[in-house]
Amino acid sequence: MTVVTTHRLGEPCWVDYTSSDVPRATEFYTSLFGWTAETAGEEYGGYVTFLRDGRRVAGLGPTMGDAQANTWLTYLLVEDADTAERAALDAGAQVIAPTMTVGDQGRLAVIADPGGAVVGLWDPDQHRGFELVAEVGGLAWHELYARNYAAQVDFYTRVFGWRTQVLGDTADFRYVTFGDPDAPAGGVYDADGMLPEGVPSHWVVYFGVADAAAASQRVIDLGGTVIRDPWDSEFGRFAQVTDPLGGLFFLHEVGTGGAA
What we know:
Distance between the termini: 20 Å
Number of strands: 16
Strand order of the largest sheet: 2-3-4-1-5-8-7-6
Largest sheet: 8 strands, mixed
Shape: globular
Protein backbone atom coordinates (compact mmCIF):
# COMPACT_ATOMS: atom_id res chain seq x y z
CA MET A 1 0.00 0.00 0.00
CA THR A 2 1.38 3.40 -1.02
CA VAL A 3 0.61 5.62 1.97
CA VAL A 4 1.39 9.35 1.86
CA THR A 5 2.16 11.15 5.11
CA THR A 6 3.42 14.45 3.69
CA HIS A 7 2.81 16.49 0.55
CA ARG A 8 5.07 18.87 -1.32
CA LEU A 9 4.24 22.58 -1.19
CA GLY A 10 2.36 23.85 -4.22
CA GLU A 11 1.20 20.40 -5.29
CA PRO A 12 -2.14 18.57 -4.95
CA CYS A 13 -2.87 17.45 -1.40
CA TRP A 14 -6.65 16.92 -1.39
CA VAL A 15 -9.67 16.53 -3.66
CA ASP A 16 -13.33 16.87 -2.87
CA TYR A 17 -16.64 16.77 -4.67
CA THR A 18 -19.37 19.39 -4.49
CA SER A 19 -22.69 17.61 -4.91
CA SER A 20 -26.31 18.56 -5.47
CA ASP A 21 -27.29 15.17 -4.01
CA VAL A 22 -24.92 14.08 -1.23
CA PRO A 23 -26.62 10.74 -0.42
CA ARG A 24 -26.67 9.65 -4.06
CA ALA A 25 -23.08 10.70 -4.70
CA THR A 26 -21.94 8.99 -1.49
CA GLU A 27 -23.63 5.74 -2.50
CA PHE A 28 -22.09 5.86 -5.98
CA TYR A 29 -18.50 6.46 -4.91
CA THR A 30 -18.51 4.03 -1.99
CA SER A 31 -19.98 1.34 -4.24
CA LEU A 32 -17.54 2.01 -7.08
CA PHE A 33 -14.28 2.33 -5.16
CA GLY A 34 -14.96 0.35 -1.99
CA TRP A 35 -14.65 3.50 0.07
CA THR A 36 -16.19 3.98 3.49
CA ALA A 37 -17.81 7.31 4.35
CA GLU A 38 -17.44 9.26 7.58
CA THR A 39 -19.81 12.19 8.01
CA ALA A 40 -18.72 15.15 10.13
CA GLY A 41 -21.00 17.06 12.49
CA GLU A 42 -23.14 20.08 11.75
CA GLU A 43 -20.25 22.44 12.48
CA TYR A 44 -18.65 21.11 9.28
CA GLY A 45 -21.89 21.12 7.27
CA GLY A 46 -22.18 17.34 7.20
CA TYR A 47 -18.96 17.05 5.16
CA VAL A 48 -18.20 13.47 4.13
CA THR A 49 -14.67 12.04 4.21
CA PHE A 50 -14.03 8.96 2.08
CA LEU A 51 -11.57 6.35 3.30
CA ARG A 52 -10.04 3.28 1.74
CA ASP A 53 -8.52 0.74 4.13
CA GLY A 54 -8.75 3.39 6.84
CA ARG A 55 -6.79 5.98 4.83
CA ARG A 56 -8.23 9.33 3.72
CA VAL A 57 -8.78 9.56 -0.03
CA ALA A 58 -11.25 12.34 -0.83
CA GLY A 59 -14.12 14.45 0.47
CA LEU A 60 -17.70 15.31 -0.43
CA GLY A 61 -19.93 18.21 0.53
CA PRO A 62 -23.18 19.88 -0.51
CA THR A 63 -23.29 22.73 -2.99
CA MET A 64 -22.75 26.04 -1.21
CA GLY A 65 -23.59 29.49 -2.58
CA ASP A 66 -22.60 29.92 -6.21
CA ALA A 67 -20.28 26.91 -6.31
CA GLN A 68 -20.63 24.72 -9.38
CA ALA A 69 -22.45 21.52 -8.50
CA ASN A 70 -21.23 18.00 -9.18
CA THR A 71 -17.60 18.73 -9.85
CA TRP A 72 -14.32 17.53 -8.37
CA LEU A 73 -12.01 20.20 -6.93
CA THR A 74 -8.25 19.79 -6.52
CA TYR A 75 -6.48 21.57 -3.64
CA LEU A 76 -2.84 22.64 -3.67
CA LEU A 77 -0.82 22.62 -0.46
CA VAL A 78 0.24 26.09 0.70
CA GLU A 79 2.17 27.30 3.73
CA ASP A 80 -0.16 30.22 4.40
CA ALA A 81 -3.53 30.52 2.69
CA ASP A 82 -3.78 34.31 3.03
CA THR A 83 -0.35 34.84 1.49
CA ALA A 84 -1.03 32.35 -1.30
CA GLU A 85 -4.38 33.96 -2.08
CA ARG A 86 -2.74 37.39 -2.39
CA ALA A 87 0.08 36.03 -4.55
CA ALA A 88 -2.42 34.33 -6.85
CA LEU A 89 -4.49 37.52 -7.11
CA ASP A 90 -1.37 39.55 -7.95
CA ALA A 91 -0.51 37.02 -10.67
CA GLY A 92 -3.87 37.36 -12.42
CA ALA A 93 -6.14 34.91 -10.60
CA GLN A 94 -9.66 35.62 -9.38
CA VAL A 95 -10.79 34.80 -5.85
CA ILE A 96 -13.86 32.54 -5.82
CA ALA A 97 -13.93 31.99 -2.05
CA PRO A 98 -11.66 34.06 0.22
CA THR A 99 -9.51 32.37 2.82
CA MET A 100 -11.54 30.85 5.64
CA THR A 101 -10.81 28.70 8.68
CA VAL A 102 -12.30 25.20 8.78
CA GLY A 103 -12.41 24.41 12.50
CA ASP A 104 -9.17 22.76 13.59
CA GLN A 105 -8.73 21.11 10.17
CA GLY A 106 -6.97 23.95 8.34
CA ARG A 107 -7.61 27.02 6.22
CA LEU A 108 -8.77 27.11 2.62
CA ALA A 109 -9.36 29.46 -0.28
CA VAL A 110 -10.67 28.84 -3.79
CA ILE A 111 -9.38 30.71 -6.83
CA ALA A 112 -9.70 30.66 -10.61
CA ASP A 113 -6.34 30.75 -12.37
CA PRO A 114 -5.72 33.18 -15.29
CA GLY A 115 -7.16 30.60 -17.70
CA GLY A 116 -10.34 30.20 -15.67
CA ALA A 117 -9.61 26.82 -14.03
CA VAL A 118 -10.91 26.64 -10.46
CA VAL A 119 -8.50 25.24 -7.85
CA GLY A 120 -8.40 25.18 -4.07
CA LEU A 121 -5.64 26.22 -1.69
CA TRP A 122 -5.20 24.22 1.52
CA ASP A 123 -3.20 25.38 4.55
CA PRO A 124 -3.38 22.34 6.85
CA ASP A 125 -3.76 22.03 10.59
CA GLN A 126 -5.17 18.66 11.71
CA HIS A 127 -6.20 17.60 8.19
CA ARG A 128 -3.03 16.80 6.27
CA GLY A 129 -4.61 15.67 2.99
CA PHE A 130 -5.11 12.42 1.11
CA GLU A 131 -3.16 9.42 2.32
CA LEU A 132 -3.40 6.82 -0.44
CA VAL A 133 -1.96 7.11 -3.94
CA ALA A 134 -1.18 4.81 -6.87
CA GLU A 135 -3.39 2.09 -5.38
CA VAL A 136 -6.81 0.67 -6.16
CA GLY A 137 -9.28 3.17 -4.70
CA GLY A 138 -6.62 5.83 -4.28
CA LEU A 139 -5.61 8.98 -6.16
CA ALA A 140 -3.66 8.25 -9.33
CA TRP A 141 -3.07 11.60 -11.07
CA HIS A 142 -4.07 15.27 -11.21
CA GLU A 143 -4.34 17.13 -14.50
CA LEU A 144 -5.13 20.63 -15.69
CA TYR A 145 -6.91 20.95 -19.03
CA ALA A 146 -5.67 24.38 -20.04
CA ARG A 147 -7.16 26.70 -22.65
CA ASN A 148 -4.46 29.33 -22.07
CA TYR A 149 -1.62 26.86 -21.71
CA ALA A 150 1.47 29.10 -21.62
CA ALA A 151 -0.06 31.65 -19.25
CA GLN A 152 -1.41 28.96 -16.93
CA VAL A 153 1.87 27.04 -16.73
CA ASP A 154 3.64 30.33 -16.01
CA PHE A 155 1.11 31.19 -13.29
CA TYR A 156 1.56 27.96 -11.34
CA THR A 157 5.31 28.07 -11.78
CA ARG A 158 5.54 31.60 -10.36
CA VAL A 159 2.95 31.35 -7.60
CA PHE A 160 3.41 27.76 -6.45
CA GLY A 161 7.03 27.11 -7.37
CA TRP A 162 6.35 24.25 -9.73
CA ARG A 163 9.23 22.47 -11.41
CA THR A 164 8.00 21.38 -14.84
CA GLN A 165 9.21 18.81 -17.33
CA VAL A 166 8.15 18.93 -20.99
CA LEU A 167 6.47 15.70 -22.05
CA GLY A 168 5.37 16.96 -25.46
CA ASP A 169 5.59 20.25 -27.34
CA THR A 170 3.87 19.82 -30.68
CA ALA A 171 0.61 21.18 -32.04
CA ASP A 172 -0.94 17.75 -31.50
CA PHE A 173 0.32 17.18 -27.95
CA ARG A 174 1.60 19.94 -25.69
CA TYR A 175 2.04 18.76 -22.10
CA VAL A 176 4.21 19.34 -19.03
CA THR A 177 4.40 17.42 -15.80
CA PHE A 178 5.07 19.17 -12.49
CA GLY A 179 6.79 18.12 -9.29
CA ASP A 180 9.80 15.89 -8.68
CA PRO A 181 10.96 14.71 -12.14
CA ASP A 182 11.29 11.19 -10.73
CA ALA A 183 7.84 11.27 -9.11
CA PRO A 184 5.67 13.96 -10.73
CA ALA A 185 2.43 14.94 -9.03
CA GLY A 186 0.42 15.87 -12.11
CA GLY A 187 0.41 17.48 -15.48
CA VAL A 188 -0.89 20.34 -17.62
CA TYR A 189 -2.37 19.59 -21.04
CA ASP A 190 -2.90 22.16 -23.78
CA ALA A 191 -6.57 21.34 -24.32
CA ASP A 192 -7.70 24.45 -26.17
CA GLY A 193 -8.17 22.58 -29.45
CA MET A 194 -9.85 19.60 -27.79
CA LEU A 195 -12.38 21.05 -25.37
CA PRO A 196 -15.88 21.69 -26.73
CA GLU A 197 -16.90 25.30 -27.23
CA GLY A 198 -17.99 26.88 -23.97
CA VAL A 199 -16.13 24.42 -21.74
CA PRO A 200 -13.54 26.36 -19.71
CA SER A 201 -10.15 25.25 -18.45
CA HIS A 202 -10.54 22.82 -15.58
CA TRP A 203 -8.75 20.36 -13.34
CA VAL A 204 -9.52 16.64 -13.58
CA VAL A 205 -8.74 13.81 -11.18
CA TYR A 206 -7.81 10.17 -11.81
CA PHE A 207 -8.59 7.30 -9.42
CA GLY A 208 -6.92 3.89 -9.39
CA VAL A 209 -8.87 0.73 -10.25
CA ALA A 210 -7.91 -2.92 -10.63
CA ASP A 211 -9.48 -3.30 -14.07
CA ALA A 212 -10.53 -0.32 -16.21
CA ALA A 213 -13.07 -2.30 -18.24
CA ALA A 214 -14.72 -3.86 -15.19
CA ALA A 215 -14.76 -0.51 -13.38
CA SER A 216 -16.31 1.17 -16.43
CA GLN A 217 -19.10 -1.40 -16.48
CA ARG A 218 -19.60 -0.86 -12.76
CA VAL A 219 -19.98 2.89 -13.41
CA ILE A 220 -22.80 2.10 -15.86
CA ASP A 221 -24.43 -0.35 -13.44
CA LEU A 222 -24.44 2.38 -10.77
CA GLY A 223 -26.12 4.90 -13.07
CA GLY A 224 -23.05 6.70 -14.41
CA THR A 225 -21.84 7.12 -17.98
CA VAL A 226 -18.70 6.05 -19.83
CA ILE A 227 -17.53 9.03 -21.89
CA ARG A 228 -14.55 7.21 -23.36
CA ASP A 229 -14.15 3.44 -23.29
CA PRO A 230 -10.93 2.08 -21.77
CA TRP A 231 -7.90 2.77 -23.91
CA ASP A 232 -4.23 1.89 -23.75
CA SER A 233 -1.40 4.39 -24.02
CA GLU A 234 2.30 4.43 -23.29
CA PHE A 235 1.36 5.88 -19.89
CA GLY A 236 -1.14 3.20 -18.87
CA ARG A 237 -4.73 2.10 -19.38
CA PHE A 238 -7.49 4.65 -18.73
CA ALA A 239 -11.21 5.35 -19.05
CA GLN A 240 -13.16 8.61 -18.84
CA VAL A 241 -16.48 8.49 -17.00
CA THR A 242 -19.10 10.51 -15.16
CA ASP A 243 -21.13 9.70 -12.06
CA PRO A 244 -24.98 9.74 -12.16
CA LEU A 245 -24.97 13.49 -11.40
CA GLY A 246 -22.62 14.34 -14.26
CA GLY A 247 -19.39 14.64 -12.28
CA LEU A 248 -16.42 13.88 -14.56
CA PHE A 249 -13.38 11.83 -13.54
CA PHE A 250 -10.91 9.31 -14.95
CA LEU A 251 -10.05 5.73 -14.09
CA HIS A 252 -6.46 4.50 -14.17
CA GLU A 253 -5.76 0.78 -14.17
CA VAL A 254 -3.17 0.30 -11.44
CA GLY A 255 -0.07 -1.54 -12.62
CA THR A 256 -0.30 -0.38 -16.24
CA GLY A 257 2.21 2.45 -15.89
CA GLY A 258 2.13 5.82 -14.25
CA ALA A 259 -0.54 8.21 -15.36
CA ALA A 260 2.27 10.55 -16.40
